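Re-run with default settings, no changes from the original entry. Doing this only to confirm the output is reproducible before filing.
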Amino acid sequence: MVRRIHRIAVALLSSQVALMLEYRAEIALWALSGVLPLIMLAVWQGSDGAAAAGLNATGLSHYFLAAFVVRQFSVVWMIHVFEEDTLQGKLSPQLLQPLQPLWRYLAAHIAEQFTRLPFVALMLGGIALVQPELLWWPNPGALILGIAAIQAAFILRFLLQSVIAMLCFWSERAAALDRLLLIPYLFLSGLVAPLQTYPAAIQKLAWLTPFPSMVAFPAALLAGEPVAIGEGFLQLGLWCLLFYPLLMLLWRAGIRRYGAMGA
């Protein structure tokens, strides 16, 4: 059983990596489009707001650079490709194969992360040339926990967007709902500002949503800020446990509707 799973995983990932390498120029552009945290760093460096929230210049630069890395490796585009596959009937042949189609989408995202890695390294190298004082090397513990938190944040984003993607079985424009989520994601995740710079009420509201777990927690962990590690990973796990059964429920209902339409 384990060998079979390993064989399938290797075949899926190798085929998806080969596919993503064909689109490496497009992935380079995607990586360049994820520089919002670096832009926000430039904005916040000239502001007194960070100092008022207890962040010094070094802590601020570490946070936004960590948020940049988190953003690069937690990108999810599930809803856009799933909407296209559903509308154009590309999902139908996948349903005939002895593999849950969602695994194929997950493998595509992981393969895209591997393909994106050298471009992110080049961008960090560019930052090192321009402003070497902005870069730092996390201690091994923070690095390992940060990588684990980034991957957990990616899984959470994948599950959340997959839940929304399932609405493609009922609507031809489900991707529009994902665009609505972009606003709270930008504001409450900590991508445009560290959460501690917000009023206390907004901070409490933010932590009632899954968005801070997607950026603020892994970025703070990677930046070496004092964070409640256990509580952060527990929140990530609980949100995943909430979205996964919801995803499976919507998938089964959606497939029944998809089949009833003759697909």
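The two ends are 31 Å apart (CA to CA). Residues 229-260 form the longest helix (32 residues).
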